[in-house]
Amino acid sequence: MTGESALIERYFRQGFAHGRGVRTGIGDDGAVLSMPGHADEIVLSCDTLVDGVHFPKQDGNRHAADLGYRCLAVNLSDLAAMGADPLWFTLALTLPSVDEGWLQAFSGGLRDCAAEANIALVGGDTCRGPLACTIQVIGSVAQGQALLRSGAAVDDAIYVSGDLGAAGAWIRGLEDKDAAVDLAALEASFWRPQAQLALGKALRGLASAAIDISDGLVRDLAHVLRASRLGARLQLEDLPLCATLGKSADHEQTVTTAAGAGDDYQLCFTIAGNRQKELERLASELNIRLTRIGQTTRGENLEIFYRDRPVSLDHAGFAHFAE
Description:
The protein is α+β, with helices and mostly antiparallel strands and 323 residues long. It is built from ten helices and 13 strands. It has two domains: 4-141, CATH 3.30.1330.10; 157-310, Alpha-Beta Complex (Phosphoribosyl-aminoimidazole Synthetase, Chain A, domain 2), CATH 3.90.650. It has a seven-stranded mixed sheet, with helices on both faces. The protein has a four-stranded mixed sheet with strand order 3-6-4-5. α4 (166-175) packs across α5. It starts with a helix and ends in a 13-residue tail after the last strand.
């Protein structure tokens, strides 16, 4: 039987970047790390992904590499929302059994995502149990430059990056076999989300507030509004859709569904109206789609419209313990 130390050595020690400031990483009782000289503050985030809850139940090795990529990417998205520079991460992996082929693929996908983000694996744990993956990411940001949910002001413009709804549409398509959706065209949006790290760092000092869209645009925007003690007017017809969803005959239904779907891992942020020209230049420099979808208002009501007609839309989004 392969022991824990052998698993770590075989699949999670080799091939990962040593990283900046890593004095001692995997192989000791704890990591010894030193912050880069320019960093005055650290940013920490931790998420757990559970088989059959956060991703379709694993059956064989088909999506093992994708799962490794996704587990890290969704955590990196939290660093992006804070404007942080990724440094290190830890991995706690619970496995029902040792499947060498699955582990080889999983660690390969994890390694791919880590290399893209230039983040180092510095420790963690493995144990037996139902499949689950917990990752903690650690990043840095200059003092006072972290993007928060609480900084929005009245009349700020509300923007989102990229496209919305594709990952959620893929999940719904799996659940509804009669759904008229091209699952193959949407699958990568779920399994390989792209954390908007470059955008998050570029928004430091420019955006007034930010959040990543994990549980659904409406739910996550509501978090920003609550923290900033503001309301907002959201225009559903302005929501950016991927090419596949953009072909839908019922545009209103599609954008309404996209507004509530989770797993986009794009950024939703606010910016003062007089700084939108700067944002346009930034979008051009990063070659990224940034779309204005609404505006903050006084009060604490989130009003949602489709072509100036009020729309009733549940703000709940995804919630683990909802009845």
